Amino acid sequence: MRTPWHGSHPPRRPAVAVLSVLALALTALAVPAAHAEGGTPPGGTLDSGTKSLTWQSPVYEKGTVDSPDKCPQPAQDPDGAVCARFDLTVKPPAGQWDDNPEGGVPVSVQWATPTDDFDLYVYDDAGKQVASSAGTADPEATVIPKASGTYHVVVVPYDVHHNSFTGTAYLPEPTDAGNLTSFGGKGGTYDIAAGTLKARVDFLADDTMRLRAAPDGTFTDPPGSRMIQSRPEPQRNTNSFDAGAYYGIRSKDVVLRVYKKPLRFALYKGDNRTVIWSEADPLRWTSGGMRQSLTRGVDEQFFGGGEQNGSFSHRDQVMNVGNNTNWNEGGWNNSQPFYISSAGYGVFRNTFTPGAYDFGPRVRTGQQERRLDAYYFTGDVKSVIGKYTSLVGKPFMPPVYGLEPGDSDCYLHNANRGERHTLDALKVADGYTRNQMPLGWMLVNDGYGCGYENLAETGKGLQAHDAQLGLWTQDGLDKLAEQVKAGQRVAKLDVAWVGNGYGFALNACDQAKAGIEDNSDARGFVWLPVSWSGAQRCGVLWSGDQKLSWDYLRWQIPTYAGATLSGIAYNTGDVGSIFGHDPKMYTRDLQWKAFLPAIMTMDGWAKDLTTGKAADQQPWLDGEPYASINRKYLQLKERLIPYMYGLSKDATKTGVGAVRPLSLEYPDDPNTLGANAKYEFLAGPDFLVAPVYSDTGVRNGIYLPKGTWTDYWTGRTYQGPTTIDGYAAPLDTLPLFVKGGSIVPMWPKGTTSWQSRDKGELDYDIYPQPGSSSYTLYEDDGVTRQFAKGASATQRVRVTSAGRASVIDVGAAVGSYQGKPASRAYRFTVHTKAAPGIVALGGTRLQRYGSAAGLAAAGTGWFFDPATGVTEVKTPSRSTAHGFAVEIA
Question: Which parts of the sequence are annotated with region: Disordered (predicted)?
């Protein structure tokens, strides 16, 4: 919002839907809204005889309202003095939408003075909003999908000064590529023509190919684009050949076929027999769109698209790319023009325009622009994610406190919660400390008229609670230098940063991260709710404002797992939502989100779903049993930070984040794409999380893929593939399973902060299986950027098992960083099922104790718990410069 808000949290401003609308011959001119009679809005019809319409608005001396909900009914606003209206009837010719690049009727409003702002909304005859564009672009433009019938266009004069607009709508008419008219090239670059259509192919390193096509023969880059961080070098060792029906271009591992009549493209493996993808029809374009049509494989699956709310697998679905600020299931506010196919390729469309990707029997992918600019990557899903993120930016390395819970509220003059001041945030931080619940950072304002005071004092007070200061900004990036010097280490952006195109949001993310890093030695830690390709390199993507329900818990599960398939390593939603509070739902939501790398509670705007009274959302406020359960999972999240931190480091190299759909690790198992697996996920390769997302104490349909899986709470093992029904999951139990062979590093029990943790102890939770497995621990100082210069250490742990005997080999910690412990003790929890006869450290037998309390008092030795089948081994402090072995037999 650009209007200062006080009191309740305002709605988010929708992002821009950027659409290039070319000049059209006006075949009809509607009556201006000012001349409407009897409260009936002006209107017009698009059909086979009338292909385009324009209409003119009244002149508005100033802004009127800020939302279409505040527009009066037409009868009460007959001259459009408050909101402009236009009734658009669409009678599409037969087959109009069967294969149309724009997929519907483009509607736009362009105003006389571009600095002003009119917002555009479209409703069907039943009153349902079907399209919108409400940012600061000129024109505001959107598309009515597969339009047919009567629609009501409402334009809100949001921020205007003696201004008017011209509205336009048209039926897009398609043109197809014709026969090949020229072909030639060398050195990895080839130029192709089919009449006026020009195409260019660039073969690039790492099995990457770029294909561009322009009906007017002019190749362009997206204006102001900073998406691409590192362009691959041309792969010059290519050659071409004439195969009669097509020209072939052979590169390192692939062959591109360029068919002649008509011009079509197909990509094959190096044998020129195995198809990777093949165009089913020639390229098709209209005045404002272009699509590519591909043949779909029998079992071909499709993933990606950035954050797609409620989905991670898109076969037989239309995947939208753009922004509709639908924060709920079906929305796509953090989408990306990128998808992956299980056929062994991925595609990134180098664009800032919205698009629709139809993965039906005939795959049709289109953007709302009259150009094609696509990068094609070949390989399996993980390698494609790596190549894509090498292009637009690998996920950033967060500070360690970024993996701890965050808290957000407005603490200055908050009408929702009474008069408050910024320093009151310290009382909330004290609540986390008092209740032994981890807190890594706090946002102490909301950027909507809720500013701050006593910033440096607030920052110091938070640091005393082992928490970092964060600030929310609507438009204040120019203040970052001053704020960072006063202690700010976290920045949260909002939808106002979308501005004139998605590039603005991406640039703001880069700027916010740099603003922290240029004015401190810290790592930039940025959150944003609207983004585009490349945002993974600079921020945590956050799915926006939702109201609490069991459905809210459900649809977020595939959302965040699916985002990983676009190289988004940090994607999350508010714990318990922002609007609405229920103790049981909040606790269930917190349980599974403890296995997301980044989480945050959003306070100050919720009301209890039962009483309707205001309800803050800190995890202890609902009392028992909720507070104890929430503490249990927050402390478990804290203990697992060494594991999550290692996954973060891996993501900076591979592009693959921690939260994964099962299909990513088990691509050959079709059940991982089934209905049951949709609502569970992997946290790294080792943990399988099956959240409870309904009001029940029993979880059905838990799918476990191939391998041995151990119930984290009971120690019971299962052999996959199998499906578990009737799993007992009372409120304090999150169904959680660990894969056989896992070695999980953990901080000691009771840890509530990375700063106050016992650095003199490191724990490993071990699940032996026949053979050997290994894990490499990654450590650095956690907060500065010295890791990028090599200031870090690794420690390799290998577990070898045969029969009932296991050997744990712990290597030396290789490398150095500020604060690296010279020595530490180790605690191993080994899931052995049966009690061992001997446990030895470096060949010396350790003493057995009859109880956990006895072992804790002794500090060194071992204990077997028959209830869980876990052998606990504790070592004395040992130098990290030397390795050692523990034998369990």
Answer: 214-239
The model scores a pTM over 0.85: yes
Distance of CA 788 to the CA centre of its chain: 24
Cα separation values, 307 from 58, 326, 560, 719, 797, Å: 39, 12, 7, 33, 35
- With b for 16 or more beta-carbon neighbours within 10 A and e for fewer, the 332-370 pattern comes to bbbbbbbbbbbbbbbbbbbbbbbbbbbbeeebbbbbbbb
Distance from C-alpha of 51 to C-alpha of 516, rounded to nearest angstrom: 52
Q: Are strands 761-766 and 823-831 parallel, antiparallel or unpaired?
A: parallel
Q: Three-state SS string across 383-438, please?
A: HHHHHHHHHHCCCCCCCHHHHCCEEECCCCCECCCECCCHHHHHHHHHHHHHCCCC
CA angle 42, 44, 45 (to 5 degrees): 160
Q: Which of 58, 59, 33 is nearest to 163 (CA)?
A: 59
In tens, the pLDDT along 363-416 reads 999 998 999 999 999 999 999 999 999 999 999 999 999 999 999 999 998 777
Q: How many angstroms separate the CA atoms of 796 and 652, rounded?
A: 19
| Pairwise CA distance, residues 406 & 429, whole Å | 10
pLDDT grade, residue 40 (50/70/90)? Answer: confident
Walk across the sheet containing 659-660 and list its strands.
659-660, 681-683, 687-689, 736-739, 702-711, 717-724
Structure tokens at 125: 């005859």
pLDDT per position as a tens digit, 174-203: 999 999 999 999 989 999 999 999 999 999
Report whether 66 contacts 158 (CB < 8 A).
Answer: yes
Q: Which two tokens stand for residue 801?
A: 């098992």
Are the C-beta atoms of residues 497 and 528 closer than 8 Å to each other? yes
Convert the pLDDT of each residue in 612-658 to its tens digit. Answer: 999 999 999 999 999 999 999 999 999 999 999 999 999 999 999 99
More reliable by pLDDT, 324 or 727: 727
Of 101, 91, 84, 90, nearest to 42 by C-alpha is: 84
Q: How many CB atoms lie within 10 A of CB 842?
A: 12
What gap in Å lies between CA 553 and CA 585, rounded to an integer?
A: 8
Structure tokens at 285: 């374009």
C-alpha distance from residue 497 to each of 18, 445, 507, 569 (Å): 14, 17, 9, 21
Q: Which of 642, 641, 364, 333 is nearest to 495 (CA)?
A: 333
Max CA distance (Å), the chain: 97
594, 644 Cβ separation under 8 angstroms: no
Beta strand pairing call for 254-259 and 161-163: unpaired
Beta strands in 296-417 (DSSP E): 302-306, 318-321, 335-341, 345-349, 355-358, 362-367, 372-378, 406-408
The rounded distance, in Å, linking the Cα atoms of 192 and 202 is 11
